[in-house]
């Protein structure tokens, strides 16, 4: 035990001394390792962020896992009784204690901007929709219960819309007209970011308030559902019971609406097929990272081998003063490992600084990531573990060469 | 008590695609604590191989090699390494100090392979040892900032810092001028005497060899004892007792070493009187 302790401490001291003496060479060789580890860690961390961005994008369009979409239509092509459907829907939500559910209706509303009136795409939703689709709000906030109780409809608009009305401070409760002459005055309560391809204004409003706007101005200004899809119903449920719930919801709503009505319940979120939809991204990113690391390791092995050849005499001297073959092997390995771990730590720190910099986050997120994940701990650990592994592998060959040194020949060399 | 014993030791190597080559042939040698042994031999005579064996760096092909009564073959490689570090000290011709390390770090190096108190107090012990060889003021000097003599003193401090029982000096003055060589040998002698260590000096300088009490000549792998140190010079052992091997070739009887003139201090300083290496009087050579 005592021998093992002194042996270990001695080997680390020797390794440190060796690194100190050859600091220029070590520094140069380690730059490669640090860059490789930095690249690996950065790629893995960015991969996680890109995955997060993809998930958020998917969630924004089709909801979080598991989101069930319910739609109903009459078999004879007639109009579905919306009130009956709403009642059946509410009853089903209550029965299964589903807290996150929303109606979603697409519509167009006339908004008289100062540059002229414009039909603006609007989605009429319920309160939980923002949470269900992880909507990112840059100004103001998503709808609250207080907004639902307003007499004037509340709006959450995109940045293009907000620009059109002059980017007013939301604390001043800016208003816009909706509809034609008999339209309503709506209050803008929140702003969500527009994707880079979005150039037209759009907005959300609460489904119940849309009904009030239509009731006030039935003649003009609104175009109901230009896509002909009717109102959709979404519910966010635990993935584990989603399959079972799909059947139950179809049965219950179908029964409530009676014969002649077809009810469809589908799961449409990105995780609906069970397998990892980002597997390909992960594999590609991982492959690149491994290649980068291999290149760094090759450079290190090269330098380490040349160095050991130059150190034959020193190794011979150490052997003649009592260094066992195992000790020489361990010391040469330790040099490599100590050095690469230090370089790995530097590389990981550089990667953290790089990935967490606002510029990189903006570039990677493209304004689409609301919950920018913190630097992934597993990426940092992977970087350090890879550095240690590369150090051990790169030290292995030189250590084997060092053990084979013939002592007296080495000294007289 | 015998520290090191070689009995009829043979060392053979097998060069690729060539017949076996005998480097050492029937070598017998006994070294006890406090002994002063010199071994003289030309290049290629097998000195390095003998040094390997005495330093437990190699094992004989046949014969007996014992250290402190234990056959070397019965000791594992790692145990032999540890035994070498703890009980044998090397002094090399080219000093072989580690470049880029201070004198203190060089002397500390063997203590990295020690255990217990020696390991944990290594810097103190190394500084004390350097003090003893007169380099207490050069602890932080790099080898390339030291003179040849100072470097060899550091090397001596390094070889003695673990208190070895056997000091193997391989051409210890080969890279030094005569005066410095003499003072270095005096230092080694003094420290060895003080610590009671045995000193085996391998050299091709008869003047250095004569400082020892027991003299041997190694020629073509055969070790012969030389009773009269004056006979150390020449191509081959003269009227020496052949321990093993074939009869030695004729010696150079005209050498001043042969006639003992150098030993008696009759050669003027700086003069060269014979075919052997030039040397100055060796007042310490009294054996």
TrEMBL record, chain A:
Location in the cell: Cell membrane
Its membrane topology: Multi-pass membrane protein
Residues annotated as domain ABC3 transporter permease C-terminal: 288-403
Keyword annotations from UniProtKB, A to Z: Cell membrane, Membrane, Transmembrane, Transmembrane helix
Pfam families noted in UniProt: FtsX (PF02687), MacB_PCD (PF12704)
InterPro entries per record: ABC3_permease_C (IPR003838), MacB_PCD (IPR025857), Macrolide_Exporter_MacB (IPR050250)
Keyword Transferase: no
Membrane-crossing segments per the record: 26-50, 283-308, 328-355, 375-403
Domain (MacB-like periplasmic core) ranges: 27-204
This protein's record includes keyword NAD: no
Family to which this protein belongs: Belongs to the ABC-4 integral membrane protein family.
UniProt protein name: ABC transporter permease
Organism: Herbiconiux moechotypicola
Organism lineage string: Bacteria, Bacillati, Actinomycetota, Actinomycetes, Micrococcales
């Amino acid at each position: 035990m005592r021998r093992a302790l002194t042996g270990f401490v001695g080997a680390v001291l020797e390794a440190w001394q060796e690194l100190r003496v050859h600091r220029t060479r070590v520094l140069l060789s380690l730059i490669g390792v640090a860059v490789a580890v930095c690249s690996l860690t950065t790629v893995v961390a960015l991969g996680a962020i890109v995955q997060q961005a993809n998930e958020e994008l998917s969630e924004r369009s089709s909801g979080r896992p598991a989101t069930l979409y319910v739609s109903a239509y009459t078999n004879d092509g007639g109009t579905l009784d919306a009130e009956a459907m709403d009642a059946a829907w509410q009853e089903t939500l209550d029965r299964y204690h589903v807290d996150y559910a929303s109606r979603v209706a697409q519509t167009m509303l006339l908004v008289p901007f100062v540059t002229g009136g414009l039909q603006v795409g609007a989605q009429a939703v319920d309160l939980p929709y923002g949470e269900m689709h992880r909507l990112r709000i840059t100004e103001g906030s998503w709808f609250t219960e207080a907004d639902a109780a307003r007499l004037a409809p509340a709006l959450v608009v995109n940045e293009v819309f907000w620009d059109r009305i002059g980017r007013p401070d939301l604390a001043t409760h800016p208003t816009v007209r909706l509809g034609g002459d008999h339209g309503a005055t709506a209050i803008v309560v929140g702003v969500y970011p527009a994707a880079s391809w979005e150039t037209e204004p759009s907005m959300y409003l609460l489904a119940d308030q849309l009904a009030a706007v239509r009731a006030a101005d039935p003649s003009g200004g609104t175009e109901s559902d230009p896509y002909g899809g009717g109102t959709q119903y979404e519910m966010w449920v635990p993935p584990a019971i989603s399959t079972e719930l799909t059947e139950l919801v179809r049965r219950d709503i179908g029964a409530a609406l009676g014969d002649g009505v077809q009810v469809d319940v589908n799961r449409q979120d990105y995780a609906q097929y069970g397998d990892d939809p980002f597997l390909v991204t992960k594999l590609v990113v991982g492959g690149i990272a491994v290649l980068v690391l291999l290149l760094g390791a090759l450079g290190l092995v090269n330098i380490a081998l040349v160095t050991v050849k130059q150190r034959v005499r020193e190794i011979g001297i150490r052997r003649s003063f009592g260094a066992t073959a195992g000790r020489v092997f361990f010391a040469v390995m330790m040099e490599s490992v100590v050095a690469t771990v230090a370089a790995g730590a530097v590389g990981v720190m550089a990667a953290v600084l790089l990935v967490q910099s606002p510029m990189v986050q903006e570039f990677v997120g493209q304004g689409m990531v609301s919950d920018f994940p913190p630097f992934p701990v597993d990426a940092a650990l992977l970087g350090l573990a890879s550095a240690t592994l590369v150090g051990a592998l790169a030290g292995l060959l030189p250590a084997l060469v060092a053990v084979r040194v013939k002592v007296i020949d080495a000294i007289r060399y | 008590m015998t520290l090191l014993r070689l009995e009829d030791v043979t060392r053979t190597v097998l060069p690729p695609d060539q017949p076996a080559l005998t480097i050492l042939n029937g070598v017998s040698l006994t070294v006890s604590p406090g002994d002063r042994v010199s071994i003289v031999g030309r290049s290629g005579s097998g000195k390095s191989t003998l040094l390997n064996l005495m330093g437990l760096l190699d094992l004989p092909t046949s014969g007996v090699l014992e250290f402190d009564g234990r056959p070397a073959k019965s000791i594992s490689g790692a145990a032999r390494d540890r035994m070498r570090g703890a009980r044998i000290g090397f002094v090399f011709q080219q000093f072989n100090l580690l470049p880029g390390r201070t004198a203190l770090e060089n002397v500390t190096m063997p203590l990295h392979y020690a255990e217990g108190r020696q390991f944990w107090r290594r810097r103190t012990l190394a500084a004390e040892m350097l003090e003893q060889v007169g380099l207490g003021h050069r602890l932080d000097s790099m080898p390339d900032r030291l003179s040849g003599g100072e470097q060899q003193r550091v090397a001596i401090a390094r070889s003695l810092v673990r208190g070895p029982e056997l000091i193997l000096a391989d051409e210890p003055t080969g890279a030094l001028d005569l005066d410095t060589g003499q003072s270095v040998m005096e230092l080694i002698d003094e420290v060895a005497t003080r610590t009671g260590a045995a000193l085996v000096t391998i050299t091709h300088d008869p003047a250095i060899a004569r400082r020892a009490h027991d003299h041997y000549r190694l020629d073509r792998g055969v070790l012969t004892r030389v009773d009269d140190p004056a006979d150390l010079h020449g191509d081959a052992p003269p009227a020496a007792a052949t321990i093993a091997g074939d009869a030695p070739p004729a010696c150079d009887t005209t050498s001043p070493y042969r006639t003992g003139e150098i030993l008696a201090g009759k050669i003027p300083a700086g003069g060269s009187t014979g075919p052997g290496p030039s040397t100055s009087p060796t007042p310490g050579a009294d054996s």
